[in-house]
Amino acid sequence: MAEQPVFVVGEGLQALEATPFETEEEFQELLARHPRVLDFGTLADGRSLRLVLVAREMGVSTSPESGPTYWLDHLFVDADGVPTLVEVKRATDTRIRREVVGQMLDYAANGARYWPAALLQHSFEKTCRADGRPLDEAYAELLGERSPEDFWGSVEERLTAGQMRLLFVADRIPLELRAIVEFLNRQMRQTDVYAIELTQYRGDGALKVLVPRVYGEVATAAKTPSGTRNARKTTRDELDAAMSVRCTAEVRHAAEMLLAHAQARGRLVGGTGRYPSMNVHYRTRAGGWAPIGTLSILGDPAREEFAFNLQAIVQRFGSGATETFVSALPTAVGLDKRLDELRDVGFNAWPSVPLGALAAEPDATERLLAAVERLLDSLEPTTA
Q1: Which InterPro entries does the record match to this protein (predicted)?
Q2: Torsions phi, psi of 102, nearest 5?
Q3: Quick check: helix, strand or coil at residue 121?
Q4: Which pLDDT tens digit goes with each residue over 152-205?
Q5: Which one of 81, 114, 331, 365 is at 20 to 30 Å from 38 when CA atoms are compared?
Q6: What pLDDT does residue 343 have?
Q7: pLDDT, tens digit (0-9, with 9 covering 90-100), for 319-360
Q8: Co-location of 224 and 299 in the same domain
Q9: Burial, 347: exposed, middle or buried (Cβ in 10 Å; 0-12, 13-18, 19+)?
């Protein structure tokens, strides 16, 4: 059956006919400029949901050592800090039936691992500058009483916990995709999955009407809304208990030195993964916070590690200070070789060093902390 027109009554009666989007680029640009067509549901406090664009063509890495491998069409966020991943396809694209689901799950899984808070903040602020939008105005919709660093830290925590929305957007949602969306929604407790059919109607001149239809809400209704779920963070007592059971005395000593230094000059933020972890943040001379790395106790001596958040370090301190920092790090278990490789991708990665190797190399932990001290005392940090 042909799509029925929509009628507008004014001085006369005008019929608006269903019209496909000419290009996917046109479709994507419309969503970037008018995210309200994707707003449905409410925030945790009952306010209407208002999505804010973080970035178009958001790069997605698939390993700590690589730059972006894939590009997500849109990444949005709401005032509760819940990230929303959007993939756009026209009905004429055969990938809308099954292939797009695999793409989206790739983006969600790897974004949760390789989108740290500093990268998200940088991407958002870059988008605002490109759109000519003042940052104060853009942040007014998101922050409340929080600082930007605290807000993006909460977004990173939600990603790590899998608390996100996945939106498949098309001008026609096929039955196969509807069935997959309903199935995923029933199986995924932390992540909400929707398909949004956005039909475009055009009339005379520039008159255009957009009619969204949401699929997946029935399955989502049985779950706690993503905006109200809170990821449980590792406490310091839990981390200490895990180290006492799983780590040698030498490894515990190295880990405690790292944690004590961060506690004295910065702060520790509990991780939200399935294993005990602690994120190490230091205050910059500009007044914000820089996530330097994460200490994780995964139950395997080879995977009890400290991972450096070089993406955030580059964005906070600049490439010159980052180069000086990595050159001063200890060379435990070939870390220097891995860092050499990462120079080619602008240090866009999370290289890690096993705590056992750090403990085994004389004065390695002290040299690591000295490198951090020099980084914090380097030239004025930057967010560029």
Answers
A1: tRNA_endonuc-like_dom_sf
A2: -60, -40
A3: helix
A4: 888 888 887 788 999 999 888 888 888 998 888 888 878 899 999 888 888 777
A5: 114
A6: 78
A7: 888 999 989 988 776 777 778 877 777 776 778 888 998 999
A8: no
A9: buried
Residue 381 lies in a domain: no
Tokens matching residue 116: 């740290």
Q: Is the pLDDT of residue 310 over 70?
A: yes
Exposed, middle or buried by CB within 10 Å (0-12, 13-18, 19+), for 227?
buried
Query: In the sheet that 305-308 helps form, which strands lie side by side, from edge to edge?
Result: 266-270, 277-283, 289-296, 305-308, 352-354
- pLDDT reported for residue 6: 72
3-class SS at 287?
A: coil
pLDDT in tens, 77-119: 998 889 999 999 887 776 777 788 988 999 998 888 888 888 8
**What is the C-alpha separation between 37 and 317, in angstroms, rounded?**
38
Candidates 181, 287, 278; CA nearest to 238 is 278
Which of 184, 205, 228 represents a domain boundary (last residue)?
228
Split into its structural domains, the chain has a count of: 2
Cα separation, 55 vs 76, in Å, equals 7
Question: Looking at residue 5, what is its pLDDT?
Answer: 74
Identify the residue whose tokens are 């970035």: 55
Residue 363 region by backbone torsions, left for phi larger than 0, else alpha for psi between -120 and 50, else beta:
left
Residue 256 and residue 207 share a domain: no
Average pLDDT, the chain: 83
Q: Go through the chain and tell me how many residues it has.
A: 384
pLDDT category at 208 given cuts 50, 70, 90 is confident
Separation between Cα atoms, residue 293 and residue 304, nearest integer Å: 13
Domain extent, residue 347, equals: 236-376
| Calpha distance 320→384 (Å, rounded) | 13
Please report where in the chains the tokens 């807000």 appear, as a residue.
151
Q: 206 CB contacts (<8 Å, ≥6 apart)? A: none
Residue 14: in which H helix or E strand, if any?
strand 13-18
Angle between helices 175-187 and 99-114 (to 10 degrees): 40
Are both 163 and 288 inside the same structural domain?
no
**Greatest C-alpha distance within the chain:** 85
27 and 159 fall within a common domain: yes
Query: Looking at the structure, do residues 176 and 219 belong to the same domain, yes or no?
Result: yes
